[in-house]
TrEMBL record:
<keyword id="KW-0012">Acyltransferase</keyword>
<feature type="region of interest" description="Disordered">
    <location>
        <begin position="1"/>
        <end position="40"/>
    </location>
</feature>
<dbReference type="InterPro" id="IPR016181">
    <property type="entry name" value="Acyl_CoA_acyltransferase"/>
</dbReference>
<dbReference type="Pfam" id="PF00583">
    <property type="entry name" value="Acetyltransf_1"/>
</dbReference>
<keyword id="KW-0808">Transferase</keyword>
<dbReference type="InterPro" id="IPR050832">
    <property type="entry name" value="Bact_Acetyltransf"/>
</dbReference>
<feature type="domain" description="N-acetyltransferase">
    <location>
        <begin position="33"/>
        <end position="197"/>
    </location>
</feature>
<dbReference type="InterPro" id="IPR000182">
    <property type="entry name" value="GNAT_dom"/>
</dbReference>
<dbReference type="GO" id="GO:0016747">
    <property type="term" value="F:acyltransferase activity, transferring groups other than amino-acyl groups"/>
</dbReference>
<protein>
    <submittedName>
        <fullName>GNAT family N-acetyltransferase</fullName>
    </submittedName>
</protein>
Length: 202
């Protein structure tokens, strides 16, 4: 996951099912982004952003660019439907002009499982704490996760130090559990977890 000055207008995070959460989202502070769930009709934008993600940070995902290029419209519509699907959420950050600049998902595979963060990406132009896009997206996924569980879990590539630092700032801690990275089993993914009832510094 990539996390990349001006005064920022901060509003309380909206529930994922709300229409929008507005945050400062451009490097010069001149505009805003809207955070909202994805829909099947977003399939073209979702495809374009997914291909951008896989070109920018291929080691952050368990899918190759070649595999993504082979998916048809039905697959992308199915992915867009995750925004409001039972047991999950998928939220996107959109500029006023319509450009997608970030995305994050959450899923719970069964009622006894911890919710899992996945599919995280922020465009290079909107990375960093001052831009606020990664924080706004994670706020939305955490709000959803609180309705499912008291924790949110994620895995991050061992070499993705920027993402690890972002998650640590948000209160996620390494659990000590690791797993092979699916596309290169000589590398590891690190598990991190946050108790959502605690402040990030807790």
């Amino acid at each position: 996951m990539a996390d990349h000055v001006q005064s920022r207008t901060t509003v309380p995070p909206a529930p994922v099912e709300d229409a929008a959460t507005t945050r400062d989202g451009t490097p010069d502070g001149a505009g805003t982004v809207t955070v909202r769930p994805t829909t099947p009709d977003d399939w073209k934008e979702l495809r374009a952003l997914r291909l951008e993600m896989l070109r920018d940070t291929p080691e952050a995902y368990g899918e190759t660019l070649d595999d993504a290029l082979r998916h048809d419209e039905a697959e992308w519509r199915s992915r867009g439907a995750r925004g409001t699907a039972p047991g999950g959420t998928f939220v996107v950050a959109v500029e006023p002009a319509g450009r997608w600049v970030g995305i994050m998902g959450g899923r719970q595979t069964d009622p006894d499982a911890e919710p899992m963060l996945y599919g995280v990406y922020v465009a290079p132009s909107h990375r960093g704490r001052d831009a606020g896009v990664a924080d706004a997206l994670l706020d939305a996924v955490e709000d959803w996760a609180r309705t499912m569980s008291g924790t949110l879990r994620l895995t991050v590539h061992e070499d993705n130090h920027r993402a690890q630092a972002f998650y640590a700032r948000r209160g996620y801690r390494l659990t000590g559990t690791t797993s092979p990275y699916p596309l290169d089993e000589t590398r590891r993914e690190l598990e991190m977890r946050r108790a959502l009832n605690l402040s990030p510094g807790g």
